[in-house]
Amino acid sequence: MNENQLTKIGKVFDAHGIRGDLVVTVFSKDISWLEAVETLNLVKDGKTIVVEVLKTRPHKKGFVCQLKGFDNRNLAEDAIGSEVWVDAEFFTSEEGESLYLTEILNFEVIDATAGSIGHIEAFSTNGMQDLLVIMNAQTKKSVEIPFVKEFVTELDEKNKKIFMSLPEGLLTINDPDDES
Fold it and tell me: Largest Cα–Cα distance of the chain, in whole Å?
């Protein structure tokens, strides 16, 4: 699998019904790209299978899909936990459009007070907003930061940097070593 041409969009969360449908939880609330997807790449235990998409429909925090060859619940249950990847071409914004999260993967995040926090290594969600998963350069620990316009002061696409003004304590809120 060439990850440069694919984008991880979520995980198989559950089986749905008796006919082999899968419930996929996505990292972003936006699934506008879903109608155009013809195949999904399922990755589990280091193995990748490319599967044709027969039908999809929105469902809670993602979508339900019917895939070619998945015709019973047992096959669907075997896929639970698989990472789901799709062609990266679905995640390129045009000028003036909102960015897709994948377009800022590996960008450096710089806070007005703390300085460089690290680089974006993944994305998550808390149900309310998208989260940037950043490997903290100083602590070597992952930190999740809400990606909301109130925190972003500048997005420098050319130099792959996001400048933010984060609330005091946000970077250490879940750090058991922080005594403040």
Answer: 54
Q: Do 14 and 85 fall within a single domain?
A: yes
Closest CA to 25 of 70, 73, 82, 71: 82
Q: Quick one: CA torsion of 41, 127, 136, 150, rounded to 10 degrees?
A: 120
Whether 178 is covered by a domain: the verdict is no
Tokens of 40: 């999904």
The domain in which residue 136 lies consists of: 101-172
| DSSP letters spanning 63-96 | EEEEETT--SHHHHHHTTT-EEEEEGGGG-PPTT
Burial class (CB in 10 A: 0-12, 13-18, 19+), 90: middle
* Phi and psi based region of residue 115 (left: phi greater than 0; alpha: psi -120 to 50; beta: remaining): left
67 and 14 within one domain: yes
Task: Round the average pLDDT of the chain to a whole number and report it.
Answer: 88
106-156: per-residue pLDDT in tens? Answer: 999 999 999 999 999 988 877 788 899 998 777 788 899 999 999 999 999
Q: What local confidence, expressed as pLDDT, does residue 177 receive?
A: 63
Phi and psi at 5, nearest 5°, equal -100, -5
Tally the domains of the chain.
Answer: 2
pTM metric for this prediction: 0.65
